[in-house]
């Protein structure tokens, strides 16, 4: 949780903002951000739990993509489970003690980094699967082994870069009890790490890899091409729209401290933060439900729990399953790799 989410009213003593405007902001932040936390928590909990259930009980880990898509919802799920604590603290104050403060800051940060690094790996994996399709298919077993090593390395790396929050996180009183880290030097290091691993690295990977993928798809033949391009643009657009505003605000704040004394700037912080957290809800849709195999397993789950007859889609599901089997048997490796985008 970012330390500047909480506002020390002493910062506004020399501000040109009216006291009434500041009071309005406090009331807005007291309800807006906790409400958004709870929305992201509920949607993220349902979506990521569903993905995990399908991967555990229905979809065997047969490819490197499956390994990454198993770890992504796990990271997002643990991430959203910390949000109710921050929601309560936003409405009232931090009442969970110093140890819980350090623990939740660590869990929150660990899974933030893990999620972003896995998104980067998924981007690179898609690049290899499309641009080097034949080689990737012939080395599936080797890629699976490397994928598990990479995922383990991501979790370990994320834990290491989360240590500053765990070590220096504590509970302080600033108008109310808050949980955060309040060392200026540590805040600078944390911000630089978040910007690098949590934004610029995934963004650079998307720009480079998806540019080459798009070029490859435009020169390829197959009915999946246009659908794959739409998915690519959607993935990049969602990442830019959800992550860029918050990271831009954080960057401005680190460069010009005078913005931090303006009430309007704090509105920008909490609104863009809420938008950024929507990624935990959107990741299951963008990275799992777009896949044909995953959707088929989803309908199997719905059928097994007895919901399919009530939805009135039993015959359509069976027809879709038969069609997908016929299609999958007729497509070559390259087309299948492109379709999994």
UniProtKB/TrEMBL annotation:
- Keywords, in A-Z order: Cell membrane, Disulfide bond, G-protein coupled receptor, Glycoprotein, Membrane, Receptor, Transducer, Transmembrane, Transmembrane helix
PROSITE patterns linked = G_PROTEIN_RECEP_F1_1, G_PROTEIN_RECEP_F1_2
Classify the protein's membrane topology as the record does. Multi-pass membrane protein
Localization (cell): Cell membrane
Query: Which domain of life does the UniProt lineage start with?
Result: Eukaryota
InterPro entries membership: CCR1-9-like, Chemokine_CXCR6, Chemokine_rcpt, GPCR_Rhodpsn, GPCR_Rhodpsn_7TM
Does this UniProt record's set of keywords contain DNA damage? no
Q: Where are the transmembrane segments?
A: 31-58, 67-87, 107-128, 149-168, 197-217, 229-246, 266-290
Give the UniProt family note: Belongs to the G-protein coupled receptor 1 family.
Entries under PANTHER family matching the protein: C-X-C CHEMOKINE RECEPTOR TYPE 6 (PTHR10489:SF705), CELL ADHESION MOLECULE (PTHR10489)
Question: What protein does this entry describe?
Answer: C-X-C chemokine receptor type 6
Q: Which organism is it from?
A: Ceratotherium simum simum
